[in-house]
Write a structure and sequence with these properties.
With about 160 residues, the chain is an alpha/beta fold. The chain is built from 3 helices and 6 strands, in the order ββαβαβββα.
Amino acid sequence: MDRGVRMTPPPHGGATEHGLGRARADADGRQPFAAPTRTPRLRLRDRDDPSERVDGAWWPRTGNLTSELHDLIAVLTPRLGPTLRVAFDWNALSLSQRSIDAPDGIEVDGPLPDQPAGVMYVFGSDEQRLRLLVIDPATEAERATARLNSASGASPSARPAAQRG
């Protein structure tokens, strides 16, 4: 069973390959966002397989997480509904990018007092929340895949869809 969104291999070069393409919001800059320009490397637990720790994992392509935020939100929308807020311990690069992005109606906050380090909270409508382990973009592919599988409850030997033969 494929528990995640189709994943692509690590980038190899060029601006698009480094995740610098962006999903475009509709005419007023708000959700729903268009299809992702790059499919996020994401795995989620099944809805009926809850966890006390995380609901899945995201392996961004760059350290500028907010540049990939619209793509992430676009693929989470079917599961979460419109995203209202994202809480995370953002790095300086992501914060500076966010300050120049067009308004999109999503509240981007620092972490909540009890929020674990390295876990992003994505809040949707009807008080739904997904807890995503954020894997450092520089993580070696085999280790990142193992962390994606562990966080999503997949078999440790499961390979991302793009790597299956």
